[in-house]
Design goal:
The complex is a heterotrimer of chains A (about 725), B (about 425) and C (about 210). With about 725 residues, chain A is an alpha/beta fold. In chain A, about 30% of the residues lie in helices and about 20% in strands. Chain A has 19 helices and 31 strands. In chain A, the strands form nine sheets. In chain A, strands 15-21-16-17-18-19-20 form a seven-stranded mixed sheet. A five-stranded parallel sheet of chain A has the order 9-6-5-13-23, with helices on one face. In chain A, strands 2-1-3-4 form a four-stranded parallel sheet, with helices on both faces. Chain B is an alpha/beta fold and about 425 residues long. Chain B has helices at about 20-30, 60-70, 115-120, 160-170, 220-225, 265-285, 305-310, 400-425, and strands at about 10-15, 35, 75-80, 85-90, 95-100, 125, 135, 140, 150, 180-185, 190, 195-200, 215, 245-255, 290-295, 315-320, 325, 335-340, 345-350, 350-355, 360, 390. In chain B, a hairpin with a 4-residue loop joins strand 18 (about 335-340) and strand 19. In chain B, helix 1 packs parallel to helix 2, helix 1 (about 20-30) runs parallel beside helix 8 and helix 5 packs parallel to helix 6 (about 265-285). Chain C has two domains: about 5-105, Fumarate Reductase Iron-sulfur Protein, Chain B, domain 2 (Orthogonal Bundle), CATH 1.10.1060; about 115-205, no CATH class. Chain C is built from ten helices and no strands. The longest helix of chain C is centred in the last third of the chain and has 21 residues, at about 185-205. Chain C is globular and about 60 Å long. Classes of the chains: A alpha/beta (about 725), B alpha/beta (about 425), C mainly alpha (about 210).
Amino acid sequence: MADVKIGAYICKGCGIGERLDAKQMMQVASRDAKAHLVREHEFLCNAEGVQMIKNDIANEGVNRVAICACSRRSKTDAFNFEGVAITRGNIREGVIWVRPNTEEARETTQEMAEDYVRMAVIEAKFMTPPSKNTEAKYDRTILVVGGGVSGMTSAIEAAKAGYPVHIVEKASALGGNAANFLRRVPQKSPYANPEDSGVAGLIKAIQADSKIKVHLNSTITRTSGAPGRFAVDITTESGATATEHFGAIVQATGFHDYDANKLPELGYGKSPNVVTQLELEKMAKAANGAVLKTKDGKEIKSVVFVQCAGQRSSKEGHLPYCSGHCCSTSIKQAMYFKDQNPTIDTNVIYSDLRTPGTGGEEFYRSGQRKGVTFTKGVVSEVVNGSDGLDVKFKDLILNQDVVEKADLVVLATGMIANSGVNIDEVKQDEPGEWKSSPESVLNLSYRQGKDIPLLKHGFNDSHFICFPYETRRTGIYTTGPVRRPMDLLQAQEDATGAALKAIQSIESAAQGLAVHPRVGDLSFPSFRREGCTQCKRCTVECPFGAIDEDEQRFPVFNESRCRRCGTCMGACPVRVISFENYSVDTVGQQLKNINIPEEFEEKPRILVLACENDAYPALDMAAMRKIEYSAWARIIPVRCLGSVNLIWLTDALNSGYDGVVMMGCQKGENYQCHFVKGSEIAQVRMSKVDDTLKTLNLEVERVATYEVAITDIERAPRLINDMAEAVKKVGLSPFKF
Amino acid sequence: MAEIVATNQTILVVGGGISGMTAALEAAECGKHVILVEKTPSIGGRIGQLYRYFPKLCHPTCGLEINLKRLRGNKNLRLLTMTEVADVQGQAGNYTVTLKTQPRFINENCTACGACGEAVKAEFADEHNYGLGKRKGAYLPNAMAYPQRYVLDPRIIGTADAEAAKAACKFNAIDLDMQVETKTLTVGAIIWATGWRPFDASKIQPYGYDRYPNVITSVEFERLADPHGPTGGKLLRPSDGKEAKNVAFIQCAGSRDRNYLKHCSRICCMASLKQATYVREKFADAGDVSIYYIDIRAIDRIDDFHQKVKADPKVKFIKSKVAKIEQDKVGNPVVHGVDTEGYTRYATAHDLVVLAIGMEPSVAANNFPIKVKVNESGFIEQDEANGAIFAAGCSSDALDVNRAVQSATASALRAIQVINRVAGTEG
Amino acid sequence: MGDMNVVKVEAYRNSFLKEVEANVEGGQWVKMCMQCGVCSGSCPLGSAWDHPPQELFMMIRAGKREEVLTSSSMWMCTSCYNCIVRCPRDLPITHIMHGLAHYAERLGLAPKNQPTRKFAKLFWNNLVKKGRVNELKLGVALYFMNGLVEGIKTALKMAPLGLNMLKTKRMNPLEYVGGHGIKDAAGLQAILKKARAIELAKAKKA
């Protein structure tokens, strides 16, 4: 790397100049860390300071810039230089704001700052500005799997933005479940009456759109590749297969009705006049405006709707969730009767009536106005009575057990996602033995399984509140009721959003840019093949299933599937995986190059590896409040705790650090790790650290791993101080030299 | 301020809350040119004032950090804070918008070092904490504030405090002569994401929000739970700073009520369930929660969170719209009403009452700079009559964060469709 | 499920609701109730009600005709209008309560000894005689509403007040024999007769 030229810049603003010896820091930068050019500035982030750096880049050939000033989270607009690697030495939030301004503290504070200067320069030395991904491809065509309302909406909306779309639908016609709907719940003011389902309109729009190609009676028998270059086998019922190429995929495979046969207590299967909402919809659609009759041809005078049938229940075989649409759907269906003949009695028995928003509440009122009655109650049984059905329930308001007679009982059963195979249960076939699975939706050839990982209750939802489209398979977005239970209005909104995400993924992949959450990152993992032991840890642990294996079990990285978390790098026992701007060295060399004082100086050193998205900002914000922490700490932000390679720990302990604190995000069911499994994987790896410590003859207290949230502004500094206390107790490391 | 380039291929996003931020970022990350305007001095909106999200109980600032990182790194996106849209003329594909920017009195030189804040004496109610605490007349709006730049409260301009702030700044960042700036831009599509505001609780007279210090709103309770909030994350009630261990949540405070807001605000049930966990977490078995509700609307798969809270014996659910609140001698709010499940009257004292306050659109129906079609609650309808003005998030309905982001992402595509049509790249 | 508690017959069929809608003032609003209970909680006399308004509405929907119409509850309403002001669904609850009481009375189902009902009857009978309320007669009638013995007891208890009123000329004992009225009392009777006829016709039609 002959052409590396590091410029180190020491800012003296914000009190740094008063609190610290800048000259000393400059000397550290040039003498210890070997920066090629070192400058100080009174106020580095102002126009003049920035210009100084720009001049050095232009005139002095500086291509690595180490800014020793405020936190990497501050002044990012100012310190933004094209084409060079930038590192930040945090001597404001990381040093002067967390240390007391006292004479006693002066020396240790200065040492802290000098170490951060060393670290910034060393990091710059081992960092390369990312070059472009050579496998980047631009394919604007989107594959939509599923031709229901969600899929059709995604296709139409993407096409409206200029992107060609293929829809693959396994049935012989478009429309999905909604094709059976007589009408839908109103989507516009005044939200009073059921309205046209809109399905015919969507089908017509698709037929009229030259950008949309529809494959009916077809399924997907293989999907391989990555965003920008997916290769998909589309197979028709007759077995004919065509391979098509796509830039991104939208999975809109919808839902199927809960099997009401599991609800014999509610009379399903025992009487033909107990039907599900979906079945009533079909009856109504078939009648097409004619008077609805019971299966045995009798006039219907009374209808009871049983809400939450087999839903919101922890009973074996029931669905634990709420399907969201069913309250409004029952109101709509009760209106089918009321609008036809107001003397028909319709009673909706519910436990919580869930009609949110403006539209929901208006529609509820409209139902009441039309004479639909609502009863808060719990239905225990539906049986064949002497004259029609007997609905046994407890009225919770009147606190009484009741039997109501009904000619028709409608069960509001739940939605079950058509999400393919559960890859946690069905493992991927071995390479060479790979077969298409008829149960799978996507038939991914990926190492980690044939479909998208499920989140909860069989849905392919995103785990993130703020990022609802983020699946764990880059460039494949799920939408509609396969993602989470939803009504038609939400499904259409959702499908429009999913189309945007597909477009975004295509545009990003074309430029080799990462998508969420490290948006725009150009780096990608590379590995030294000759050093690889084919241990498969990286391919197994990648949270996004980005890494496949070739026939010899070497990893295949699929750059545009990668989210750049570095979990593979952390996993690799032989350290052959790295990113241009983040590697075993960019961190490892930092920690190795700090100054470890001699034992007699009694100045411990604590290495803190902190998640850059949560723990690190928490420490920054603690610093803004001037919450102090130990001067022994040296903090290095990491992309994810999952990227932490054990070598960093052993190196640190071997070179005389007295303690190591790792701060990741919450793991488990409500994980907050934005790389899904990073913090969890780190925890597993760290569970083996005790053995390492024992072989080194070190106390287990010297290494601690914590879950730290971004709001932990008091706790995070406290955890560092706790380690300082622990070190005091067990004594300094014997490895200082 | 650097010149702003905008053309009829630019998307204007109005409002820098989670919806506006999302819409702007999603569009910009598709390669589109976006201008994001925000009325207040920093972006983040109401989610920045939340301690946790339901149902994961994760922290909104965590996602905000990611979004801010996305924003900082995106060259297609231009952010204008303290800016409002004064006027909009034109039609889809070609709007002329007038933007009005209030003076911040602090320029780009600001390093957020805090010297001006220390120099200024005057204090004002802290908007970030819904007025529950005070902040200085020179202030950083909150710890996550972006731009990370101080603001001078216009009320100190012309006072000695303003001069003191100026004198304290070593970086020449304070400009007391800043004026209101008006600029006119051309844009192709507009995403309207001005969000919601909490309904004015004092209008619900029987609840005594304006009379009893220990009756607060859910948005305020959120600030109490937050370590960045006025109590440092302790659940202390306003009247005497006593720990609020026995907390009542009153649902539909303003919502589902023709006297106030006719619509259901959707989020309040889940918000109270979430806040119930704060009480239980902080005080363990010494914590007691009562939730007074009409219907618990924990919609779709997140109902499991409702079931979990419901299984907690220390959380009581009472199907009742509370009739009135009185205050006893020791300052405890006493909640009166009828449990409609089996008819029982109650008059129960609690340490603190939290009103699960409803959401109303931030911009009143007659206050839009251009005519848009709204529904009876004032939310913008998706309608062709609105041209290329698309609502995102709570401008379109009472939505939770997940749905707001969904809506914002959809609105970004709708705007892109217009832009691509203008550019002729749609086919 | 204990069969003892099971309510059979026309339970939850809407026949009674429809009857109420047709015959009770404001009856068409009963179906709009969402069982929030704010009316019941806001009623200043709420604790005296066996079945508060929201419960009555549910009972109507549940078809509990007998129980509702023979109930004393709606007779407890003092027309303070608190419930109407508070109802989130716009129900004219006060009117419905009076409407229900009135309908029950018309059907002869109203509880015979319900004091408010008795008072209402006394008041009405007193009023329609001359078109003006005779306060003295009404007062005395109220004392003896529950029988002679109780009437004497009450009268004795109230005697000092009565004497004071006499002294300060706040009461004219002669009112008891004559009393003033409107000019055309016969005309009033004619109006009332006609009104009754209209009401009857309406009820028959329904």
